Amino acid sequence: MPECLSGETFTRSRSVVARVVAGETLIVPIRGKVGDLASIYSFNGTGTLIWKLLESPRTLGQLAACVAEEYTVDSAQAESDVASFVSEMKAVGLVEVAASVAVAGD
Questions:
Q1: Residue 70 has pLDDT above 70, yes or no
Q2: 54, 35, 32, 33: which is closest to 43 by C-alpha?
Q3: Residue span of the structural domain in which 26 resides
Q4: Tally of domains in the chain
Q5: Is residue 42 over pLDDT 80?
Q6: Coil, helix or strand for 6?
Q7: Angstrom distance (rounded) from CA 89 to CA 52
Q8: In whole angstroms, what is the distance from residue 100 CA to residue 106 CA?
Q9: Does residue 29 contact residue 93 with C-beta atoms inside 8 Å?
C-alpha cells in the first residue's frame, strides 16, 4: 500500500453525481453546478463495491478487507488493487480525504 495513502480515511467527493444504470455505476463530476458530461466514469463490480463502501469514511485497509472477502482474493492483492483504484479516483476528484475529527488532548 502506498505510504502516502496508508494513514488516510477516504470518502466520496460531494462534487459528483452517481447512478447505477444497467448494473454499472456511472459517476459524473459536477463543475460550476453543471454535470461534466465529458468526464463520465464507469465502474465495474469491484469499483461499484468500493464506491458503495465510500458512502461513509473508510481506510484503504477497510476497503481492501471488504474486497478480499467479497471476491475471495489474497489480501495483499486486494490492498494493492484498492490502493491503485483509490489513488486514481483521488487524482480525478471522485474521492477525497475525509475530514478528521480532532480529539481532546491531541
A1: yes
A2: 54
A3: 13-92
A4: 1
A5: yes
A6: helix
A7: 14
A8: 12
A9: yes
